[in-house]
Each structure stands twice: as C-alpha cells, then as structure tokens.
Amino acid sequence: MKICVLVKQVPDKNDEINLNEDKLSVNDSNFNLTTNESDNYAVEEALLMKEKFNAEVVICSFGKESSVQVIKDALSKGADRGFLIENDLDKEYDILNISKIIKSCLEEEKFDIILSGLQSDDQGNGQLGVLMAEHLNMSHGSLVMETNLDVDSKSIKVKRELENGWFQWSNLALPASLTIQSGINKPRYASLRGIMMMKKKPIKNIKLSELQSNINDFTEIKELYVPQKTKETKKIEGSDDEIANQLYNVLKNELGLI
Amino acid sequence: MKILVFIQVDDNQINRMSLETLACAQHVSNDVSAVTFNNEAANELVKYQLNEVLLVNHEDLNSYNPLRYAKVLEQMIDNYDNFLFAHTYETRDWVPRLSARLDLPFISDCIGLASDNESILVTRQSYQGKINNDLKINSKSFISIQSGCFKSDSIKPGSSNITNVDVDLSNIPNTITAEEKFKEQKGGVDLAAADLIVSVGRGIAKEENIPMAEELSDLLNAEVGSSRPIVDYGWLSHDRQIGSSGQVVSPKLYFSLGVSGAIQHQVGMKGSDKIIAINKDSNAPIFEIADYAIVGDLLEIVPKLINKLKE
Asked: Is the ipTM of this complex over 0.90?
C-alpha cells in the first residue's frame, strides 16, 4: 500500500498580509510559515493507515524552497520519504496548473491513496484532491471525516460531511484521492527520536524550471486589495474595566438587550 | 456571453444558493440558461428570464454522483462560454473533475462577477478573507459563487421553455457509490432560531474557559455557538458550529469571543443584525464586519462584564 499526502506551506492564520507595490502579489517576506491546518490531519490519517496496514507514506509539497520544512515536519512524525516540487520560477500558478505540475511528478509512483487537506488557508481553492483524482484516474471522496480501509477488497469506505449537519458514507474503489476535513483525528507531535530519524529520510527535490510542463495562463490577476469595509465599526477602547462598562452600556442602552 | 447555471436540488427543493447564482448570472449577461436534473425544479425555473431551461431526466441522476454529474456537463461544454455553480459542498466535490478533464479553469468561491463583453472578471478572497483578488478569465470557465453575495429575490422574472436533453451516461466506472445520508445529532440546538448568540473561537484558549462563555450566554439569554476549531478540539458539540460546514445564523446580536472570522465562518453569520467582536488580533477579519470592535483580551474583559451583568 502506497499513500501520498499533499501538504502545503502557508502563512500563519494570524499573520498580517501586506501587498507589494505592484498590487499584484503579496509580500511574503515576514510570514510565519507553517503547515496548512487541514493537511496536518491528512498526514495523521496517513500515519494511522501506515501503522495499521504497514503502508508507505510519501509526503509531497509544491512551493518555494522553504516548503521543505513542512515535508520534514511530516517525516519527523513518521512518514517515510518526501518530494519537494520546488517553484524556483518567480511566478504564481492557479490551482489547475499546479495540479498538472504535481501530476507530472507523481504519475509514475502509482499511489493507492492520495490524501490532502480539504482546502488551503491561503488561496482556499479547495480543489486539489479532486483534480488529482481526475488526472490520475482515481475515485475520490471530499470532506472526509472518517476512513475505513479494506486492503483485501481494494476499497475504502469514507464518512463525508455534507451541508447542514448531514453526513454520508461512500464506498470508493482504490486508487482513491481523499480530501480530509479538520477534526478527523488528533494530529501527533514529532518525538525527539522521530526528529533524529527524519534526518536520514530521503527528500527528492524536483525543480519546476527543469520540468516539461504544459502551463496555460487561464487567469490573469488584475489587482489585489484589502476588502473595503461596508460597515461602520465602533471601536470600544480603554482599560479592561472601562471596556466591560462600555460593553454593558451597549448591550443595555444601544441594543436594549438587558 | 452565453452562461449556463447549474441548479442544485436538495430533497426536491432548489438550493437557495443556486438561485443566488442565477441572479448573479443575469447580472452579467442577457443570455443565461439553467440546467437541472429535476422535473419540479425545471417547472419552477420557467418563471425566470432565461434563454431556456435544460432538463436532463435520467434515472442515474436521481441521486448525486460526481462522475455522472461531470459526464452530463461535459456533454454541454461546447454550447456555452461560462458555467456557473453555487459554491456548495456538492459543487466542490464534482466540478474540479470537469476542470481537470477538459483542461479549463474552475474559479471557486467567487464573491463578485462582472463582464466586459469579451471576458469575465471575478473577485475572490484569499488569506482567510484578508485579501480580495480581481481576476480576468481568459478562457471558457467554471465559476462558483459564495453564499450571500447575490440576492435570490433579485432574479429577473420572465418566461422560458423547458428543453429536454438526452445524455449518454454509459461507460461510467462504478468506483464511487454512496449510502443514504444521515444526521448525527438528533434534537440538537437550532442556532438558526436563536435571537442572541455568544460565539466562541480559538481565542478562548482553553477548554476550561468554555464555562465562562456559557455563563455570559446564560446571563444574556443567548445560545452558545462556535467556530470550527472549537468543535474540532471537542470543546463543544458539532451542532454548535457556525459557518459553511455548520449552521447559517442571522440573530439580532452575534457576540463573538476570540473568533478570527475566516471566510468559512463569515458565510455562516454575516447576516446578523449586530456583531460585537472581541479579539486580540487587530487584523482579524471579524472586525471588517463588526459593529462594535474590541481589540483586547477576552479572558480579562468577559469576567468583568459578567460581574457587571450580575449586579
């Protein structure tokens, strides 16, 4: 059983996002970079499968050179080897082009299962797992909350989250691509031993500039900007006591709720 | 510009967001058609100003399957310039397949759409709603529209006809089969009916602090809601969750404690009459939509407010 987890390095959710002067890109020089939240759950789900079924877990990331860190973090937790597809060209790509780049690098591995977080915290496309399924002729399940792998019948049963509190079990034939909802498991921390072992694990580096990829400029960024506020916001400031008093007044006098 | 809007039907009812998407399409083009797999939905759609209503009646489409759905739209690809969808979980599950199969972009979760006759311009958010991106699309495309960005009651009325369309659904692999859908919690709290909601986010810091939020909620006669992480941590039950994967609420007051207000959360609560937000991070997106903004430590402020309310 060969499992691939697609992970992405993203800025911390609390990072301030500043634009470059061209208003066509964000200034990423001061980001606190981290593993995309739902990808952590995808890594954990793969490690649970590894423990139960003796699977090989391969971590793949597409991004700048710094993305090697998210691969190392997953290897420290117990994954077997890594793939960094390094974007060494000074250009950003839309999700369809990214999926084609990843496909060209993963195709020959013939994974049984691909796991990814349901969406990235930066671009938020929420498409990669399903795009990979189509590219690699796999079944897929999105927003997966529970998995039940059956190696003998070459299938995996997944509990999917639907809208408005509904759920559904789906049976997927392998190979399958799953997008993992956060909360599916409790991601582990790397042990000291895991970190030591990580240093011996192979990470293959593939440079985008050396790949033959078929890029289409489907979309063109016209402008990035901070959303305009549509609401008048009243700031409540002061010491904690003063704020509590003002809040009380708002609730009582302005909103008439007490 | 010829636009086809996919109408999602849930439990024999047209999805509300699909109607918003129809309104969005009419707003940018005079040549809009709709496609549905449901008879009753088709009969309802003829009362709108549409070029035509395409009805695909096939027993294999009675329940949702991503491979079959993708196969239908694939067969309509030559007839339209752009394809619009509501940004639902279902759309997210099948439309990327079309994108990969046909090598055409899927621009998901858009909040605005405009047209300059030759091409479509869309606005979508990134970095948890902190940045807006205006994009020009240079090809035929699939576009999904975020909930609440267009009003379904602004759909232009008119009259149109139903055209029955035959599709070939043979040779679709049977690799994805779904069981009946179900709900986990019976008799859970109905936040949609609550007048006041005290909502808890990551800023609450520890599970031990949840009772503080519950006490504030009790004093205000409110219900407790939460953002996704709190439910993921198991600090509150799933039925308390507000946002795209939880409930959509519009109370008189939404009092948020340490909620950052990512897009997925805002989708579920931006319709609230008044929003009070306490958060340590002055850049939290929740402040963009708050009526009252408090940049501060909720763990200090809330106990003081509770004491004041008890007096």
From this structure: yes
